[in-house]
Design goal:
With 314 residues, the protein is mainly alpha-helical. Helices cover 63% and strands 1% of the residues. Helix 3 runs parallel beside helix 6 and helix 5 crosses helix 6. The chain is globular.
């Protein structure tokens, strides 16, 4: 059977299509503010990339139409709170494009995942704006008011289950006992899981990274849960909360910043899964996907060096 090779633009479009179910779930629970953030992110990404390419004296059109900057913008937009002020996404995407991609020479040369670099920058710099999520569905008018600061609306922010896990010690929660935010996270993660399966079936991504990442989450969280089930959450809780599925299928699988050897991908994904749980439980931030991915991005050259397959005949 002949496998049709896709160009960069086709791959980026397929990944964007696969995000649709997860984004749809976000819109269902949080409102149309999600679309506003995506729109702002895409516009900012295209303008920033075009301006930086012009400063470098590089061709603008090929880099713009390959779809990579749009995908980076979408991934960052759906990772931040949907009610974050407009300048948050503009600043984050600009940082991601310049310092996560263009400063290294553009697509294919970046050692770090640009979207996660932008997210980490925002979370460290603006923790308050990056940890406030809507408690209820927002209409378009409410979304515009909140994002652009046109008026103050009470009762819009609520803590996620990972926040409760960190601050209120609500450990070992089953799906039936999850609060509304956890139920929303469950369906959002299911949406990204289904999108990830689509990418696997289309052979857009390799299976090793998502499978090993999820396995790493399960192994680490189960080990902690067995030590003290009153202190640490179950593996199911970690799988259906936060950005676990988004990380497994859409972020860690970035072909540029991820490991490229078959066994290297297994190590890379598994260690990301381990780090996600460790940072969630013992770190200072409720979710840990960005930090786990960026830390493993640094180790990719070392992992690939020691996991190169043997040359045929030797």
């Amino acid at each position: 059977m002949t496998v049709k090779l896709l160009n960069t633009n086709q791959i980026m479009r397929q990944v964007s299509y696969a995000l649709a179910l997860g984004i749809g779930a976000q819109v269902y629970f949080f409102g149309l503010s999600v679309f506003i953030q995506i729109f702002l992110a895409c516009i900012t990404g295209l303008i920033t990339e075009a301006l930086f390419l012009r400063l470098r004296g590089s061709e603008i059109k090929p880099a713009i139409i390959d779809g990579s900057v749009v995908l980076t913008a979408i991934l960052l937009a759906i990772s931040i709170p949907s009610i974050a002020p407009w300048w948050i996404i503009v600043l984050g995407v600009s940082f991601a494009v310049i310092f996560g991609k263009q400063i290294f020479g553009g697509l294919g040369n970046n050692p770090f995942n640009p979207a996660m670099l932008g997210y980490a920058f925002l979370l460290i710099s603006y923790p308050m704006q990056m940890t406030q999520w809507p408690a209820d569905y927002l209409s378009m008018s409410q979304a515009v008011d909140v994002i652009f600061g046109l008026s103050n609306i009470d009762g819009l922010t609520g803590a996620t289950s990972l926040d409760h896990l960190k601050t209120q010690l609500t450990m070992g929660i089953s799906i039936q006992e999850l609060e509304l935010n956890s139920i929303s996270q469950l369906w959002i993660n299911i949406g990204f899981l289904l999108g990830g399966i689509y990418l696997l079936l289309r052979r857009i991504i390799f299976w090793q990274i998502p499978v090993s990442l999820l396995l790493g989450v399960v192994v680490m969280s189960t080990a902690l849960f067995l030590v003290d089930s009153d202190q640490f959450a179950s593996s199911l809780f970690h799988l259906v909360n936060g950005a676990t599925m988004l990380a497994a299928f859409f972020i860690a699988t970035d072909p540029v910043s991820a490991s490229t050897t078959p066994s290297g991908r297994l190590i890379y994904g598994f260690l990301i899964g381990i780090l996600i749980v460790i940072i969630r439980v013992f770190g200072g931030y409720p979710d840990a996907v960005a930090f786990a991915v960026l830390l493993l991005n640094i180790t990719v050259p070392l992992i690939d060096f020691y996991t190169q397959p043997k040359v045929f005949g030797k």
